[in-house]
Design goal:
This protein is an all-alpha fold. It has one domain. It has 7 helices and no strands. Helix 2 packs parallel to helix 6. It is elongated.
């Protein structure tokens, strides 16, 4: 049973790493589930504090997905119309047949939202759109870093306990 939990743990960690880049999957929370599965094995020495701290990072990553892009839109002089447009565009983009439909939807949604607010100020709409894209890149980078750290931490724990595994 322990080996099955270890395999499932590694699968969750890899899916979490992929999910940190693909917007439809919550990457760090899935990675944390992998750590939780590893915690339940009887042959791996695992610290409860590691599980608690990584849980806080996984929950924080969910907020980063929404807060960072909206803050970047505001920083780049965007309005609530741009924020709402980015969210609506991102949701619509998830269902598009394009590989990066989420990103395209987010950018177009922010741009259209800003144009709805003020159709005469094209330059400001473009700048706010750039802000939404930068915010998306930042939040994706943070999520990827968190998921990668969880995977590397798991590999370190497995390496340290390799004598018990074989």
């Amino acid at each position: 049973m322990d080996y099955l939990l270890i395999i499932l743990s590694l699968m969750c960690l890899i899916i979490g790493l992929i999910g940190s880049v693909i917007p439809i999957l919550p990457g760090p929370p899935i990675s944390w589930i992998g750590l939780l599965l590893l915690y339940f094995t009887s042959i791996i020495d695992f610290n409860y504090w590691i599980l608690s701290i990584t849980f806080l990072f996984a929950i924080a990553s969910l907020f980063f997905d929404w807060i960072i892009p909206s803050k970047m839109i505001k920083k780049f002089k965007g309005t609530k119309f741009g924020i709402y447009g980015a969210v609506i565009g991102a949701i619509i983009g998830l269902f598009s047949p394009f590989i990066f439909g989420f990103i395209i939807g987010l950018v177009l949604g922010a741009f259209i939202g800003e144009l709805i607010y003020d159709s005469k100020d094209l330059k400001r709409a473009l700048i706010a759109t750039i802000g939404s894209f930068i915010g998306f890149i930042l939040s994706t980078g943070i999520n990827f870093t968190i998921a990668l750290c969880m995977l590397l931490l798991t590999l370190k724990i497995l390496w340290d306990n390799s004598a018990k595994l074989f």
